[in-house]
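WARN no homologs supplied; continuing
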Amino acid sequence: MFDNLSDKLERAFKVLKGQGKITEINVAETLKEVRKALLDADVNYKVAKQFTDTIKEKALGQHVLTAISPSQLLIKITHDELTQLMGGESADIKIESNPTIVLMSGLQGSGKTTFSGKLAHHLKTKRGKKPLLIAADVYRPAAIDQLHVLGEQIGVEVFSDKESKDPIAIAKKGIQLAKENGNTVVIIDTAGRLAVDETMMNEIAALKKEIKPNEILFVVDSMTGQDAVNTAKAFNDRLNFDGVVLTKLDGDTRGGAALSIKTVVNKPIKFIGTGEKMEAIDVFHPNRMADRILGMGDVVTLVERAQEQYNEEEARKLSKKIAQNKFDFNDFLSQINQIKKMGNMKDLMGMIPGVGKAIKEVDISDDSFKHIEAIIQSMTPTEREKPELLNGSRRARIAKGSGRSIQELNKLLKQFEETRKIMRLMQDKNGMAKLMKSMPKMPGM
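OK structure emitted
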């Protein structure tokens, strides 16, 4: 996401490289490029102009310290203003009453039904809530079936009534069921509608009036750019929604909707969808997104995702095995599965400062681990526990069973031994010093 914008902003700041101080001329030149970059990213013209005017005003009033360069100072000011432009701080969903009623709204094809499932999964796994999904899209039977499939996938109950064509009646029955079953959150998936369709807009306005939701979320496909912002304004004028959800942000290299929508509708972006999996949902953090746009990575989100997969008891067991030099292929496979649960591999690597730019043109598939898993799963339980048993004949059998070459198997075994060595060094009190000394000798370093 935001690849094109990040590249263009980086080029814009190069104008100030080597400059001894900030002047009206060099700032104007840089900000002209910044404004062009924002417009290319499909940011609203008024928003882009106001944004660069604010940066210019702040930059010209700043005294450049000897410790930093003018370009670094301008990047810092731009970062702060980008954060403010996208909302300033994160705004999670409000869980206040019991049950809390969340009404989903948006255009057809914006990803409402999928996001309803993701939100239910998020509230269940990360906030300990007991959600109920209500299928109130009476115009698209496939939406009801889709919601039932998603509910089964994430272990969340779905209420629907295929006989009824009244979304208000369906929503009321579902809310009553939630009260009886002790559900803490109700998520109502509604039909997609166009802002110009008066009948459909009246229907969702009536639904809001009848059920009085605690939270109305507007779901929009971020790849539609400025159209997304215009649609958000039209919906907000009718519904006065509480927050925006940007879906398919992983497929949007421009990012205009994320940068414009808060200013235009004055409502926060609450969540972003970053992939197809049910786990591919993040609370939107403006400061972290500003980091990513300016090529600074997003270490905080990376650490949070790692912590979600962290199991203290398993970590203790693993630490003990490493100390005894008993780390085996079962543990290796377990670590791979934890990394896979953290999300899209390219997205994860892009969160590491400096890595995103380096891997921009590299195609990193989510299937990157498949050949490793195939090799390990072709080993017997004894071979996984005791890799030292892998002689020539065993290696030939494993290679044949996994459909990989002997060379790939040997490479994996070498990587496994290197991993073992590093883990042992890190267990040692003086391990980090030894590790730093040994790094230049390691293959590929």
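The first strand starts at residue 100 and ends at 106.
OK
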